[in-house]
Design goal:
Elements lengths: L5 E7 L13 H4 L3 H12 L3 E7 L4 H10 L3 E4 L11 H10 L3 E2 L4 H8 L1 H10 L7 E4 L15 E5 L13 E2 L2 H15 L3 E5 L4 E8 L5 E2 L3 E2 L15 H5 L1 H7 L4 E2 L4 H17 L5 E8 L5 E8 L8 H8 L4 H14 L10
Parallel strand pairs: 1-2, 1-3, 3-4
Antiparallel strand pairs: 5-8, 6-7, 6-8, 9-10, 9-11, 9-13, 11-12, 13-14
């Protein structure tokens, strides 16, 4: 019989879910669906769970830790002060408070966030990654001679496909310069241009701290893709319900065959370890028609919404949603944070 825990669901204050979503449309609940699904699963598992909305005052977390005395925080914070790069500091703050929490540790969040640095680390560990170049904010885009077109241009540290569209694929120096300028000015970050891998895109969920499990690869499927458009996960494809309906976006298990599936899983685990990740993460990959695949990036603490890629791939591996949430809890309580080895 599993131990019943006191859990505080840590989320953004505007995403604290209601007690019920009965009668609401998919559009109405889209913003807080993850928070609702996770909180519901925690309660269905028998845990004492409440949501804690956090705005710009991090001290709310400290006060809640003292007053509620949770066994752990279920961390769904993906930014702070509007900065995506601050998610690592939220995890660091939880460690300074000496409390358990779910998801990735601060070091892993930091390493995975920088797409240039993470590629360097993954390549050094033998993980296949596309060639790339980073263009710092404010500098002109001068393509290295050994970096061939087509290239895919995006922010070096933003997530959720921010700034990504069909125009992110460039085939000339003029297009490269324009897209890098777009990332610099509109997204406000350094830009990275990586070799565009024409072919299939899929995702591998990995769960664990030291002992890792890779779930079946899940493929991006866009059945209504316009002629000439690339099969990529633009921001609209990921988050706009109307776009998803119009393009008939419905991801599914990737049919890779046992040999390729095993190779992809091994590469995903190797990347996970190279970036010192913990808890759970999603590895994004693309594969050429000849079967050569490349790891693009790692996404710690990916979307846990019921019915989305990570949860669906877990269920394909025999891990139902509630059990997935329970296993994430166990990984949070068993993670060997530095403070656990330090004197009180």
């Amino acid at each position: 019989m599993k131990k019943k825990l006191r859990v505080l669901l840590l989320c953004h204050e505007e995403l604290v879910p209601p007690d019920t979503i009965a009668g609401k449309t998919d559009e109405e609940i889209a913003d807080y669906r993850t928070e609702f699904d996770v909180l519901s699963a925690l309660r269905d598992l028998g845990h004492e769970a409440e949501a804690l909305g956090v705005g710009d005052d991090i001290d709310v977390v400290r006060r809640a830790a003292l007053e509620y005395e949770p066994d752990l925080f279920f961390n769904l914070m993906v930014e702070f002060h509007g900065a995506a790069t601050y998610d690592q500091h939220v995890a660091s703050y939880l460690e300074l408070l000496r409390v358990d929490y779910t998801g990735c540790n601060p070091r892993g969040l930091t390493l995975a966030r920088d797409k240039g640095l993470s590629k360097t680390l993954m390549r050094s560990a033998g993980v296949p990654v596309p060639d790339w170049a980073v263009f710092p904010l404010g500098r002109r885009a001068t393509r290295p001679a050994d970096l061939p077109y087509p290239l895919f241009v995006k922010s070096v540290d933003e997530e959720a496909s921010l700034g990504i569209s069909q125009k992110s694929i460039v085939t000339s120096d003029a297009e490269l310069a324009e897209r890098v300028r777009f990332v610099h000015e509109r997204v406000g970050t350094d830009a990275i241009a990586e070799e565009f891998i024409e072919g299939r895109e899929f995702y591998v969920g990995v769960l664990g701290n030291r002992r890792l499990e890779a779930f079946p690869a899940w493929e991006l499927c866009i059945r209504g893709l316009p002629k000439g458009a690339a099969n990529i996960a633009t921001r609209r494809v990921k988050f706009d319900l109307e776009t998803q309906k119009r393009l008939r976006v419905k991801n599914r298990a990737a049919d890779l065959g046992p040999g390729l599936e095993a190779a992809v899983a091994a590469a995903a685990k190797r990347a996970y370890r190279a970036l010192d990740l913990s808890g759970f993460a999603r590895l994004d990959l693309r594969m050429r028609p000849d079967g050569r695949f490349y790891v693009l990036e790692a996404n710690p603490n990916p979307d846990l919404t019921y019915g989305e890629d990570f949860a669906d791939s877990a269920e394909a591996a025999g891990v139902r949603y509630e059990e997935l949430i329970q296993r994430i809890l166990r990984l949070g309580t068993s993670y060997r944070a530095a403070w656990k080895a330090s004197p009180a």
